[in-house]
Specification:
Elements lengths: L2 H33 L3 H8 L3 H8 L9 H20 L2 H6 L15 H25 L2
Length: 136
């Protein structure tokens, strides 16, 4: 790929991320509301300051989600969907806030694991629920 083509591709990717950011943040805000996640917890899940999360949530943030933040958001939204496929709605919404006896949680709330472990914890939690759904 020639240098101008690479620059055009990078610009296209950035434009896609810019366009997807408002929709992603709106969906994530809804997920966090159903999970009753505090602003401080939401900020830590997204890897931003609480002040930045408040601006993101209020749609007054003019930035685009980074690749890391898009990965976090995608995994969290996917986890929400997986929980609702596996559990009843009330349990699906409560699950992240309940102490869990699964080996990776060690009686901690999945929310606390995801916050403390960042992307690896978010992805591992998503994989855990996907394995439950798949019978693994």
């Amino acid at each position: 790929m020639s240098q101008p083509d690479r620059k055009a591709l990078d610009a296209s990717i950035e434009a896609d991320r810019q366009g997807a950011t408002p929709v992603t943040l709106k969906a994530l805000g809804r997920v966090f509301a159903f999970w009753r996640v505090t602003n401080a917890e939401a900020a830590r899940l997204m890897g931003v300051s609480e002040r930045t999360w408040n601006r993101m949530k209020a749609a007054s943030w003019s930035g685009a989600l980074s690749q890391d933040q898009m990965l976090r958001a995608s995994a969290l939204i996917g986890l929400y969907k997986a929980l609702h496929l596996y559990f009843s709605d009330p349990l699906a919404d409560d699950w992240v806030g309940l102490a869990n006896s699964g080996a990776q949680f060690n009686q901690r709330r999945p929310l606390d694991v995801m916050i403390s472990e960042g992307v690896p914890g978010i992805l591992a939690t998503r994989d855990y629920v996907d394995a439950l759904r798949g019978g693994a």
